[in-house]
DNA sequence: GCCCCTTTGAAGAAC
DNA sequence: GTTCTTCAAAGGGGC
């Protein structure tokens, strides 16, 4: 599939091609190490943001809208065979209120956005499409904030293509995503977006506990049995990145619920498992690709995180979840304060880092 | 309120 | 290198 970057063009570095595995590759190359892939990507991070210029123009390399995009949908709502073809948008992080400057027509109602949902700014010609996020986290390049960065919106300039596309009258259902990404119309004039008023929680992080000053009045948590336990509870719970099947399941579950009138997740998951096996390799490859990018981005956001960290934390996580729901405001690691995008790059200014992405890696899928 | 169920895949541990 | 275990999502159901 072209979107898998087999030609090394769509997804950047060739090392990803080695790491990526769809079902067929899993059979043929079961030992391809995602670790090595991550290491390669990590090592390339330093240069990633500085090596984005190439002999090819960005306009040429950037996926172009496909006139037949609607016909690509089949009954499962999935693209085939090339879901990456034809994206009139690129993706940026869910910046909370950040998208509002683009919505001068009020297309995206504030109520359509929740902390863990992905609001969508959609092209009017593709109102039938449900975008599925995709991104190329290998383009992430943590670095210090640019000295010249200013969150002032006054410098924002917008070409006609940068105008916000209104959400279709039918409305777009916010698509929840663990990494909290937001789709925004493309158009590559430099533009500046003021920082949001509220932090955007990174859905991959479940705060282990509300960090409170000693003696906080609303603290009802019983004392931990040990300092170690207390320390453990203070640590935010960084969830595992979703695998391909989980991504598929999250996407297809509502359809199964609607079709089968079943609510029990165990039953639904059985159905989804069967459907998963009935998918073609190309269809599954889309989810493997997304999952691979999830892992890459996750590894960059949390380079020291290990799946082992979550061992034995299921109970804690559930307890913490309810606490989170009760508490309201929380502090998260991944709080994007603002971003700047230009012809070739988008820079996201987070609380503790600056993430530089090559726009050529900002793609997404339609469903 | 907590855990189980049920699925697949990824990652780590154990052998 | 292989096998086993745990966790990721989801929400009804049981205790």
From TrEMBL:
<dbReference type="GO" id="GO:0071664">
    <property type="term" value="C:catenin-TCF7L2 complex"/>
</dbReference>
<dbReference type="GO" id="GO:0000981">
    <property type="term" value="F:DNA-binding transcription factor activity, RNA polymerase II-specific"/>
</dbReference>
<dbReference type="GO" id="GO:0030901">
    <property type="term" value="P:midbrain development"/>
</dbReference>
<keyword id="KW-0238">DNA-binding</keyword>
<feature type="DNA-binding region" description="HMG box">
    <location>
        <begin position="238"/>
        <end position="306"/>
    </location>
</feature>
<feature type="compositionally biased region" description="Basic and acidic residues">
    <location>
        <begin position="226"/>
        <end position="235"/>
    </location>
</feature>
<dbReference type="GO" id="GO:1990907">
    <property type="term" value="C:beta-catenin-TCF complex"/>
</dbReference>
<protein>
    <recommendedName>
        <fullName>HMG box domain-containing protein</fullName>
    </recommendedName>
</protein>
<comment type="similarity">
    <text>Belongs to the TCF/LEF family.</text>
</comment>
<feature type="compositionally biased region" description="Basic and acidic residues">
    <location>
        <begin position="18"/>
        <end position="42"/>
    </location>
</feature>
<feature type="compositionally biased region" description="Low complexity">
    <location>
        <begin position="47"/>
        <end position="56"/>
    </location>
</feature>
<dbReference type="InterPro" id="IPR024940">
    <property type="entry name" value="TCF/LEF"/>
</dbReference>
<dbReference type="Pfam" id="PF00505">
    <property type="entry name" value="HMG_box"/>
</dbReference>
<dbReference type="InterPro" id="IPR036910">
    <property type="entry name" value="HMG_box_dom_sf"/>
</dbReference>
<dbReference type="Pfam" id="PF08347">
    <property type="entry name" value="CTNNB1_binding"/>
</dbReference>
<feature type="region of interest" description="Disordered">
    <location>
        <begin position="1"/>
        <end position="78"/>
    </location>
</feature>
<dbReference type="GO" id="GO:0007507">
    <property type="term" value="P:heart development"/>
</dbReference>
<dbReference type="GO" id="GO:0021903">
    <property type="term" value="P:rostrocaudal neural tube patterning"/>
</dbReference>
<dbReference type="GO" id="GO:0060070">
    <property type="term" value="P:canonical Wnt signaling pathway"/>
</dbReference>
<dbReference type="GO" id="GO:0010456">
    <property type="term" value="P:cell proliferation in dorsal spinal cord"/>
</dbReference>
<keyword id="KW-0804">Transcription</keyword>
<keyword id="KW-0678">Repressor</keyword>
<feature type="compositionally biased region" description="Basic and acidic residues">
    <location>
        <begin position="58"/>
        <end position="75"/>
    </location>
</feature>
<keyword id="KW-0805">Transcription regulation</keyword>
<dbReference type="InterPro" id="IPR013558">
    <property type="entry name" value="CTNNB1-bd_N"/>
</dbReference>
<keyword id="KW-0010">Activator</keyword>
<dbReference type="GO" id="GO:0000978">
    <property type="term" value="F:RNA polymerase II cis-regulatory region sequence-specific DNA binding"/>
</dbReference>
<dbReference type="GO" id="GO:0060847">
    <property type="term" value="P:endothelial cell fate specification"/>
</dbReference>
<dbReference type="GO" id="GO:0008284">
    <property type="term" value="P:positive regulation of cell population proliferation"/>
</dbReference>
<feature type="region of interest" description="Disordered">
    <location>
        <begin position="211"/>
        <end position="238"/>
    </location>
</feature>
<keyword id="KW-0879">Wnt signaling pathway</keyword>
<dbReference type="InterPro" id="IPR027397">
    <property type="entry name" value="Catenin-bd_sf"/>
</dbReference>
<feature type="domain" description="HMG box">
    <location>
        <begin position="238"/>
        <end position="306"/>
    </location>
</feature>
<keyword id="KW-0539">Nucleus</keyword>
<dbReference type="GO" id="GO:0000785">
    <property type="term" value="C:chromatin"/>
</dbReference>
<dbReference type="InterPro" id="IPR009071">
    <property type="entry name" value="HMG_box_dom"/>
</dbReference>
